[in-house]
Amino acid sequence: MLQMLYTQATQLQQFNVSLTNNALFSYLTIWAVSHVYEYKRSYVVQQLQKLASVDPLTGLYNRRQLTAVFEHCLVTHRRSEEQFGLLLLDVDHFKTINDRYGHDAGDLMLTHLASLMKVHSRHDDWAFRVGGEEFCLLVVRSNQQLLQQVAERLRQDIEQHPGQYNDQKISFTVSIGIAVWPEDGSTFASLYRQADRRLYQAKKDGRNTVVA
Ligand SMILES: Nc1nc2c(ncn2[C@@H]2O[C@H](COP(=O)(O)OP(=O)(O)OP(=O)(O)O)[C@@H](O)[C@H]2O)c(=O)[nH]1
């Protein structure tokens, strides 16, 4: 009788252990699967966010990001009581480049210009492609004088460094309008409008020039 009871108790114990093992195994499997799923989900979200904020041709931020970045800069610059500014660039006679060398060459000149903009940006400045052949550099912690220097250096660099398309060198120039926050506008719309007016003036003045 005792022997029988002992056998039943042992079997019950083994059953309990196997139940616990199964539960542990199921828990670990669910934990691992949910972690892989979560990792993949956040990767896809990141990729979608990147696609929504970056211009696919040049790798610069797109126009959609410009207002968000501006609002962020407003907060930080109000706090530090520093100025910042916008350089609005437009390629001169870009249509002629497309017409003469083809659309692919035009695309390459846009990426060439984007890389020169990156060269002239500090690590916390922001470079955008805001339209077809229109670009914007948001220069943080700057003033009128610094913005003019950056714009003039960039203009000269673009003029002196033609882009390469197959075995051809293609020269082009840009016109630049500058606006400084808060003097030229305290909101994004007013500051951008002022930079745009000055860009228009630079075009009227004969192009390949900076208007501040
Ligand atoms: N290759 C290429 N061309 C583009 C792209 N986006 C816009 N364009 C071209 O850019 C040209 C812009 O021409 P316009 O607005 O007349 O300006 P522009 O010829 O640069 O003349 P100004 O600005 O007055 O100096 C048009 O021919 C568009 O087709 C692009 O992504 N790639």
TrEMBL record:
Kindly list the cofactors needed: Mg(2+)
Q: Which SUPFAM superfamilies match?
A: Nucleotide cyclase
Per the record, GO CC terms?
Answer: plasma membrane
Q: Which PROSITE patterns match?
A: GGDEF
What residues does the GGDEF domain cover? 82-212
What catalytic reaction does the record list? Answer: 2 GTP = 3',3'-c-di-GMP + 2 diphosphate
What InterPro entries does its record include?
Diguanylate_Cyclase, GGDEF_dom, Nucleotide_cyclase, Rev_trsase/Diguanyl_cyclase
- EC number assigned by the record: 2.7.7.65
GO MF term set: diguanylate cyclase activity
- The organism's superkingdom is given as Bacteria
**Family matches, as SMART domains:** GGDEF
GO biological process terms held by the UniProt record? cell adhesion involved in single-species biofilm formation; negative regulation of bacterial-type flagellum-dependent cell motility
Indicate what this protein is called per its UniProt record: diguanylate cyclase
Q: Which organism is it from?
A: Shewanella fodinae
